[in-house]
Structures are given as structure tokens and as C-alpha cells.
Amino acid sequence: MEFEAWWLVLFPVFFALGWLAARIDIKHVLADSKSLPQAYFKGLNFLLNEQTDKAVEVYVDLARNHAETIELQFALGHLFRRKGEIERAIRMHQKLLERAELKPEQRHAAQYELGLDFMKAGLFDRAEELFESLEGTELARGALRHLLDIYQQEKEWKRAIEVAQQLRDTSHTYQHEIAEFYCELANHAAIKSQPKEARQFLQQALAEHRKCVRANLILGDLEVAEQNWMEAIDAWQKIESQDHRYLPMVAKRLLDIYDRLGKIEEGTALVRGYLATYPELDMLELVHDRILQYEGSESAANFLSEELKRSPSILGLIKLLDSQAVGAQPERKSELDLMKKLVQDNTRSLAMYHCGRCGFKARQYFWHCPACNEWESFLPSRGQTRPN
Ligand SMILES: [Zn+2]
């Protein structure tokens, strides 16, 4: 197509039209603001002076006569909740709900907000009722997510499974979470001495998520409780193909079984094999302690220094200093202790478990992060700060 120069004439015309449109808009806005009732500014003033109580009263009165301030009430309620003034947020949203003229979507939004208020106040039963009432509405999915939070906090794992199944889609399959919920149920059944139920829950956990390490961990414990030694070994060894980083968690338990069966060398060979394939600090400690126990301190120290050459690590160095201090002359021992203290002081955070999601650190391993509530977010080896 040929370019026609006369089109250029149109550009100034378009600009002029745009300018005019903007002016009309501004005039419209100015006209609107002039019609805002005086009480609006009075309320705003209370709010700016942090006299939120008085502001609430003013805005509630305003909302009675001016339907357009409904959105303002929502914003205020949200503000109160964020500030931790839960009672005021609840009052605001309850007053909103009393209004007969609310459109259905506004009523749903008020129920949703009130649900969040109750949740923050720890009144889970009331929050649950409100979120459940939103089924089939445009806010149903958000309400389900909050219900999932409530059921997890209340440890109602069966209901949590139902909700997670409803929520699952291609972007979030909830496999990890559902498998963890089954593991929680299995643990609970095991505590109540119901091994049959516990096993069924573990099967469901593995059916949901075949790489659920925790299910095999618990299964091994169940087998041990019934003295099914070989079955326990089988369950725990499966963890290698699920996620080898979790092996150090079961290695000690595996060794206990081998020792009980009188297969001491077989046990040692197994954990040494794991260490050769997956050099992890916890496995290194375990093999070292075993050599110390069965072969003496010299062999153990030699083993450690060889391992450190192969796979250098700060935590391994601490262990080596520790091991050399055992049985050393007093002067040498105090030197080694000082070196160990210096290294430890500078690497304290390494000897902890980390949440891969929020960075929370702890001496203990958690399946459910106490800081960010994520499942299986703790890295299974101490000192790790990111997944392998
Ligand atoms: Zn976390």
C-alpha cells in the first residue's frame, strides 16, 4: 500500500481530541469531588489523626445515606484488620452485611472479609462457616484456600485433603501437601496403636505422591514396632530412589537394625556406600562414629582426614578437630579446642536446617515450616541453603 502524505494532517486533530477528552474528564472529576459530602472529609480527618473510632462512626453514617461509600467501608475494614484492630474490622463488616440493599457480589465480598477477620481473631469455627457459605460464588476459590489454612491449623487432615483435591489444577497439583496430610493421619493412627489404618494412610500418601519420603520413613517405624526387620530395611532403602538427600535421616535407624541382627559389617558397608555416592555431612558423622566405636580413634581420625580431602567441608573440618582432640595431650587438646571454637563461631548457621522457601533456620528438622507453613520446604541436610 502506498503512503499518503495527507494522513499527517490528521495527527494534530487526534492530539486536539485527546486534550479535549482529558479536560472533560478533569471537569467531570472536579464536579464529582464538589458533590462529596462534608462528612467524608470529617471522617478522613479523624482517620488522618488516627482517631479511627470516630472515623468508623462517621463512615457508617455516611454509608447509610450514600451507597457509593460501600467500597470505602471495605477499605476501612481491611485497614483495621491489617492494623490488628480486629474487633473494629468485624464490626464494620457486620454492619455492611446488615444492609439490605447490598448486591450479591458485595454481600459475598463482605462475608469473605468477615471470614478473614474471624480467622485473624482465631475464631476458626465462625470463619469456616462464612467461607463454606461462599461455595458456588465468584469468591469460592479464595474461600477454599482459607479453609485449607484453617483445617491445617486445626489439624483436620481429612477435611484438608478434601479441600486440596478441590483446589488442585494444572498450576498447583497439591500432591506434596495431600501426601503430607496422609502422613499426618498415619502418624496419628500409629500413636493410637492402629497400625492397619496407619498403613492404609501411607499407601494413600504414596499413591498421591510416589516420592513421598516421609511415608517410607513412617512405614519403616511401623515395621520396626512389629519387629519386621527386613520390611523396615526395605522401606527405608527405598528412600534412596525417592530422594537420596534424606538418607542420612534413616541411616542411623538402618544401622540399629543391622546391629540387632548381628550384621555389623554389612551395616557399615551400607552406610560407607551411601557416603561414597552422596557425600553428606550427617552421613560422614555417622560413619565416623561407627568407625570410632568398632575400630578406634586412630582409624576414625584417618577416615575423616581422607574424606575431607575427597570432599572438603567446614563442618567436616570441625568434626576432624573434634576427633583429633580425643586422646590428645592437654596442650595439643586446648589448641584443637580453640581452633574448633573459632571455626564454629563463624559457621554456626551451617550446622542448622534451613527452610528453602523462607530461609527459617532450626536445629530440628521440620516437615512443615513453622515460619512460612510450607510443606517439605526444609532441606534435609544441615548446612544446605538451597536445594541440590
Ligand atoms: Zn519456611
TrEMBL record:
Residues 23-388 are cytoplasmic. Fe cation binds at residues 355, 358, 369, 372. The chain crosses the membrane at residues 6-26. It is found in: Cell inner membrane. It comes from the Bacteria. SMART domains: TPR. Keywords: Cell inner membrane, Cell membrane, Iron, Membrane, Metal-binding, Repeat, TPR repeat, Transmembrane, Transmembrane helix. Residues 353-378 form the LapB rubredoxin metal binding domain. Gene3D superfamilies: Tetratricopeptide repeat domain (1.25.40.10). It is a single-pass membrane protein. NCBIfam families: PRK11788.1-3, PRK11788.1-5. HAMAP family: LPS_assembly_LapB. This is Lipopolysaccharide assembly protein B. It comes from Parachitinimonas caeni.
